[in-house]
Amino acid sequence: MGYYDDEYQEQRRPRRKRGAFFSGLIGAIIGALIILLVYPALVDRGILPSTSSENDVQQSDNSISGVQKTVSVNVTSDITKAVSKVDNAVVGVVNIQKSSSFWDSGKSSEAGTGSGVIYKKAGNKAFIATNNHVVEDASEIEVSMSDGTRVKARLLGTDALTDLAVLEIDAKHVKQVATFGNSDSLKRGEPVVAIGNPLGLEFAGSVTQGVVSGTNRAIPQDLNGDGVADWQSEVIQTDAAINPGNSGGALVNIEGNVVGINSMKIAQEEVEGIGLAIPANSVRPVINDLERFGEVRRPYMGISSRSLDEISSYHLSETLKLPKDVVKGVAVIDVEPSSPAAKAGLKQYDVIVELDGKPISNIIDLRKVLYNQKAVGDKLKVTYYRDGKKQTATMKLIKESL
Questions:
Q1: pTM of the predicted model as reported, rounded to 2 decimal places
Q2: Is pLDDT at 402 greater than 60 in this prediction?
Q3: Beta strands in 76-179 (DSSP E)
Q4: Is 334 a catalytic residue?
Q5: Mean pLDDT of 368-375
Q6: Any idea of the CA torsion for 277, 132, 283, 274, to the nearest 10 degrees?
């Protein structure tokens, strides 16, 4: 009996294992069927995420309806609208120079490329603003239009102080003219776009976006290479990428108006994201003179000066003898003999605080009044401090001779 029972139990064990296996398999199949039936409803209610790709869904829709669906994305923005208003007015400027080599004497080659902005069209002529350094020493100048057409350009005039130049071309090639905006209304953080030809015409019409990082920046310039700054350029600072070849191109605001002419870039390894442009309000009077006279006819006072914010507090009180509440203005460092300033009685260490009744905070303010609001032959009322006392004088401006 004992043997029989043992043999019987051994025979039943495999049957029990097979039964458990089949029961588990049937349960898994039933569970999978339930999940397949319930899953779509859970996805529709957002309880479970969909694992189907967008292409799978589209293929499923197409297989059901037989209709091909096309999704249209509108990429028009304030930036693209602004670019479209000036894009074709930004051109390439090619500096062609004759070789000085004995073997290649008389041959001409491209010495460099930059950018320019078509700002005016009058009759059969069109006028382009660019940088002085872009066309410097050129024997010939060509303009590359937005469609790639090359046309001859005539240099009307240059101004080294502001790094500006004006070119003239045949107006029949011009499709668009840029409009200047008011650079004095720019605010830090305001979006701007730089348009030009970085690194050459291969990248013509490149657009970079950024913001106005700063306004009324004064950058010292050594024009004669003697290592001493003899001019301070007023510029707009932006983080829009401005690279070699962008010089002379447009800095555009969100309304599509040119608020600056791109000029320099601080190219140092430790400096990134600093581009500079000449403000439109400084550009206009210069290019108007260059277009009409071939030179800039600047009113001339006959002083060398320095902003008070560049002078130590010791010299403000001890050398200039200013009242403590006078912290803005321009100190007269030297007066040229027989100049308008000398004839009006101005002396070294006088501090100019107003011109024609308008407060003057620094050299940039002085130049704005002098170059943007006055003309050669105009009279100018100067309010200044001498030995702590406020005084006034009137001078007649003459033409600056460089």
A1: 0.69
A2: no
A3: 90-98, 108-122, 125-130, 140-144, 150-159, 164-170
A4: no
A5: 86
A6: 10
pLDDT band at residue 32 using 50, 70 and 90 as cut-offs: low
pLDDT above 90 coverage of the chain, percent: 58
* pLDDT at position 323 over 60: yes
Q: How far apart (Å, rounded) are the C-alpha atoms in residues 247 and 243?
A: 8
CA distances from 32 to 29, 46, 57, 367 (A): 5, 20, 22, 83
- How many other CB atoms are there within 10 angstroms of residue 195's CB atom? 26
Catalytic residue of the set 87, 163, 239, 365: 163
Token pair in block for residue 106: 């008389």
What is the rounded distance in angstroms from the CA atom of residue 168 to the CA atom of residue 123?
A: 12
Can you tell me whether residue 87 is helix, strand or coil? helix
Determine which one of 247, 263, 305, 307 is catalytic: 247
Phi/psi-derived region of residue 77, left when phi > 0, alpha when psi is between -120 and 50, beta in every other case = beta
Calculate the CA dihedral of residues 336, 339, 345, 351 and round it to 10 degrees.
-60
Mean pLDDT to the nearest integer, 301-317: 93
Contacts of 198-204 with CB under 8 Å at 24 or more apart are: 198/241, 198/242, 198/243, 198/244, 198/245, 198/246, 199/243, 199/244, 199/245, 200/113, 200/245, 201/92, 201/94, 201/113, 201/144, 203/245, 204/92, 204/144, 204/146, 204/148
Distances (CA, A) of 72 to 52, 92, 391, 394: 22, 34, 69, 67
Contact in structure between 390 and 245 (CB atoms under 8 Å): no
Q: What local confidence, expressed as pLDDT, does residue 338 receive?
A: 94
Contact 139, 110 (CB under 8 A): no
Active-site residue, 247 included: yes
* Catalytic hit among 87, 133, 146, 305: 133
Instruction: Report pLDDT digits (tens) over 330-343.
Output: 999 999 999 999 99
Backbone φ, ψ for residue 10 (5° rounding): -65, -35
Q: What is the pLDDT of residue 393?
A: 97
Radius of gyration over alpha carbons of the chain, in Å?
A: 36
pLDDT at 149 exceeding the cut of 70: yes
To 10 degrees, the CA torsion angle through 278, 222, 247, 256? -10
